[in-house]
Design brief:
The protein has 10 helices and 14 strands. It is an alpha+beta fold and about 475 residues long. It has 3 domains: about 150 residues, 2-Layer Sandwich (Beta-Lactamase), CATH 3.30.450; about 110 residues, Helix Hairpins; about 150 residues, Histidine kinase-like ATPase, C-terminal domain (Heat Shock Protein 90). The strands form 4 sheets. Strands 4-3-7-6-5 form a 5-stranded antiparallel β-sheet, with helices on one face. A 5-stranded mixed β-sheet has the order 9-11-12-14-13, covered by helices on one side. It has a two-stranded antiparallel ribbon with strand order 1-2. Helix 1 runs antiparallel to helix 3.
Length: about 475
Amino acid sequence: MIPPSAPPRQPPALRQRIGRHVLLSLVLIWGLGSAVVLGVGNHFVAEAFDRALLDDAHALAAHVRGDQSGDRAGEPLRLDLTPREVGLLRFDQSETVWFAVYGPDGALVAGDSHLAAGPVAAGSTHAFSQLAHEGRELRRVSLRIDGQPPFTVVMAQTTAERTHLLRRLLAYSGLAQLWLLVALGSWLLRGIEHDLRPLTELQDAVDHRDAADLQPLPPALTHAAATRDVQRLGEALDRLLARVQQSLHAQRDFAGNVAHELRTPLAGIRAQAARALEHSDPAVWRSELEGIAQAEQRASRTVDQLLALARAAEGGIALALQPLALDALVRDVLLRYLPRADALGVDLGAEGLDQTMEVRGNTALIEGILNNLLDNALRYGRGQPPRITVALHTEPDWAVLRVTDNGPGVDTGLAQHLQQRWAQGAQGLQLGQGAGLGLSIVARYAQLMGGRLALGVAETGPGLVASVWLPKAHPVEPEAHPAP
């Protein structure tokens, strides 16, 4: 039997992680502060005690007598202190004091014989050092007096008072710092809790929101947040909801459009199939099958246009634009349409393709624009004789793509209306072949690339002129290099 796997470990909450980092930082600061206080305190305490010990050594040296000059030449060195004064010299409430006086030959003049003199560097009069005696640590100073004759005074005392003073200093400073750090930590944790509360409210608002509710978050949760980060998160969620809502609307529109537009051709296909089944004449079968094939082509074209329109509705989310050779792209599309134009007896021509013209756009969108404009012109531009002209013109910042036919054209007042979905002119309604989507797709594609679509009347005779303005690709200036 396979044992059940352990549940995955949940990551800590954000406030716990931040609080842990804050408290750990405070503890480290407290430890470093205590170490600094201990080091600085030890330095100044030792300096104060050493100064007092040196003063005692100087006071003791002032009572050393003896001279080898004058009338009292040859008098030996001696310590001119009574036993009572020596007792006062050794007196200390908490420490034990030793002293010794050594002559120029190193012989003990007075004091404790076990207290040896420490080395004194050349050019200096005294030196401090540590000394161990009877298991206790002593602090010693050796004072050299350059007199007649020279002698050395040694003073030493235990360090219990120093250690006790350092402990008290560390305890008082550590407790004071600890109290301050506790107060600071409490204040920081309350501040963290206060600053993260809008994030918790934002999370609760998103968790309790219905799946179908894609409206922006309440302004109280985003714009009134205490920090800019929470505001930016709320604004990002609002933008995400807007994109999801746009995508859902596009999907609903696409589903509704498909259901609406395919209902008629499917009903016609079903009626023609039923009519063919009612007859046994092969001629009737052929006639109905040709009608079914035409209806299928119209339905397929409508589905393709609906898919293109849905992609155009969502294309603004992430669209890669790059410099393109518009003249070469138009030439390739025209070559693909020549067989169809020849089969329909349409004179398909081009102008302005001999000059190089670069635009900033998307290959698929530009091909979609030209495909829809040529398809509309081949369907509706039926002049006598039928003629379609594709031309490229240049303006200061724009490249203009024009498709002109010699069909019936449209009224000037209907030009803007035809760029909307499901809008058809009288010619389109009469032929009953389109769905009114082609020009809306062209307008949307041009908008996605920073351009626009305009419909007008041909200058010479009847006909429709569809003009698409596309932004030119500005050349990148070469980087200037300094002269050698």
